[in-house]
Design a protein that fits this description.
The structure is a homodimer. Chain A is an alpha/beta fold. Chain A is about 25% helix and about 35% strand. Chain A has helices at about 1-10, 30-45, 60-70, 130-145, 160-165; strands at about 15, 20, 30, 55, 75-80, 90-100, 105-110, 120-125, 145-155, 170-180, 185-190.
């Protein structure tokens, strides 16, 4: 998506450790107009599907997902992060290992709020190693809900998360796909053509595990 | 605000420890239509002021604040929480003690993103002891920005945060003010008349400390 790519080129900063800093418009300060254009783009792509809920993970995906939920006219649901390891019967839960923070945490949503009646569009800001996204998919699967698709703002295609998830058949529409970047020159190279599915688009229910 | 009070009465649950569970519409699942009505209400009240940024604290205030930012046509900015105690010159920082979680953490925003040019409306979901809100006010003050007002979704007026902050002269417009609740009967009692300012409305700059 051109508007997002241009914003990354003009306001993004490449930091050591393969980090792209987008705090000026995406994950600390949020450019609402840009988020609305992104929501519109996902609505063009996924809008025909019977989506009942937008699911994201706290915290940085929430603003974006709220505007997507507004565009689709459905509630937003965000999974919470927990450091504790107590198990409760009231939540769908999964585990994420963060490579950036070098720690493992649990994510969860209330079973009351995500059920087998739901048709879910997952929205998140970044896809790199895919651990957080896989954990969100796990929550949908545990709930017996239908995963209708996945929208990602920025995917680093040089990291394995997107490919791994696409190989499992998930349909991921990322609005900016970064093929490479250079922390010396601050250059960002985007994929010339969007990668969406590796197989033909399919929707998944109870396929996990 | 009637719509929010009714939602609290129909979908909120009172839990032991003075906790009001509003995860069905505010801080896990988010009712976007209700958030838009709330944004409209704050816009009616604060809309004449020269607001340049909406400021909130991750994570549960973000969805609400994003819809407020949309209504005001300005960017959203959210402060991040840190457990580490490293000081950096690049951020405005403050400290919060959470009574609910019995721990102390740091909150911060980038100095690039909050400056003395800004006119800020703070939005948050809850006000009880006021520690998180005071820390957000601190960030505005440290930046030398103008605090134009504070919008809170749900205030527990039987806890001291709102009164303490109003006594310091801050103008807080809370859309539902809970005077008391009863965890045995699940009864919620609202303030009969809104409490906004204790003194006449004033705006504050560099008043902190």
């Amino acid at each position: 998506m051109k508007a997002l790519e241009e914003k990354i080129l003009t306001e993004g900063r490449v930091l050591p450790g393969n980090i792209l800093l987008v705090d000026a418009f995406l994950n600390q300060q949020v450019d609402i107009d840009l988020m609305k254009q992104m929501a519109e783009e996902w609505h063009s792509y996924f809008g025909e599907r019977p989506i009942t809920k937008i699911l994201t993970l706290e915290a940085s995906g929430i603003a974006l997902a709220a505007l997507v939920a507004e565009r689709f006219g459905v509630p937003l649901l965000f999974a919470k992060k927990y450091e504790s390891h107590n198990i409760t019967g009231e939540r769908h839960q999964s585990i994420v290992h963060s490579y950036t923070k070098q720690k493992t945490y649990k994510i969860a949503v209330s079973k009351r709020l995500l059920t087998s009646e739901d048709h879910v569009l997952i929205i998140d800001d970044f896809l790199a190693n895919g651990c957080a996204l896989q954990a969100l998919v796990d929550l949908v699967t545990h709930a017996g809900a239908m995963l209708e698709g996945i929208g990602i703002a920025i995917e680093k295609t040089f990291q394995p998360g997107g490919q791994n998830l696409r190989e499992r058949g998930y349909e991921i529409y990322a609005l900016a796909q970064i093929k490479a970047f250079d922390e010396e020159t601050n250059d960002v190279v985007f994929e010339p053509e969007p990668i969406i599915s590796i197989f033909s688009p399919e929707r998944h229910k109870d396929q996990h595990g």
